[in-house]
Amino acid sequence: MPLKLEIVTPEARIFSDDVDTVVLPGFEGEMGILPTHAPLVTILKPGELRYTKGGKTTEMAVGEGLVEVTGTTTRVLTDMAIHSDAIDEKAVEEAIARAHKSLESLKPGEQQEEIAAVMAMIQRSTAQLHLKRKRHTTGLTHEQR
């Protein structure tokens, strides 16, 4: 029995297809979803989302968001979802460096919204770097797995 996976960002529907399994970074750690999983709604943390279809595993970096599991469908609503092949490692490293500089200029106790936005950007960028560097280690693209 297949499991419908939908991944949606504010910009577009990134993925919609039947898959065998989904593993995602949940609020309390990595969570595996199989067909007929108990219904739930949970928080998605920045990290790595993996899905398997026909024995092939595909990995994506995802940002913050929500996950809804209905037993037949898993919906991921996130602010970022990107395949490792589309990640520009140098650009992400530069963005992290700029974010850290920005954090240094913000005063603790003030500008809480700006601090939270910068921290969220660092988390999303770190998730991308982790996935991209994992690819360098294994040397495989998601099509080859």
Describe this protein's structure:
The protein is of the alpha+beta class and 145 residues long. The protein folds into two domains: 3-83, F0F1 ATP synthase delta/epsilon subunit, N-terminal (ATP Synthase, domain 1); 86-138. Helices cover 30% and strands 39% of the residues. The strands form two sheets. The protein has a five-stranded mixed beta sheet, with no helix packed on it. It has a five-stranded antiparallel beta sheet with strand order 4-3-6-7-10. A hairpin with a 2-residue loop joins strand 6 and strand 7 (56-62). Helix 1 (89-105) runs antiparallel to helix 2. 22% of the residues are buried. Residues 140-145 have low confidence and may be disordered.
Strand count, sense and barrel status of the largest sheet are:
5 strands, mixed
What name goes with the CATH superfamily of the largest domain?
A: F0F1 ATP synthase delta/epsilon subunit, N-terminal
Number of continuous helical runs: 2
Mean pLDDT: 84
Percent in helix: 25-40%
Q: Indicate the overall shape.
A: globular
β-strand number: 10
- Provide the CATH architecture of the largest domain: Sandwich
State the strand order across the main sheet. Answer: 2-1-9-8-5
Number of domains: 2
Please state roughly what percent of the residues sit in beta strands, choosing from under 5%, 5-15%, 15-25%, 25-35%, 35-45% or over 45%.
Answer: 35-45%
The radius of gyration over CA amounts to 16 Å
Task: Give the CATH topology of the largest domain.
Answer: ATP Synthase, domain 1
The low-confidence runs, each spanning 5 or more residues with pLDDT under 50, are: 140-145
Can you identify the CATH class of the largest domain? Mainly Beta
Q: What structural category arises from helix and sheet content?
A: alpha+beta
Span of the ends, CA to CA = 22 Å
Give the helices and strands as they follow along the chain.
EEEEEEEEEEHH
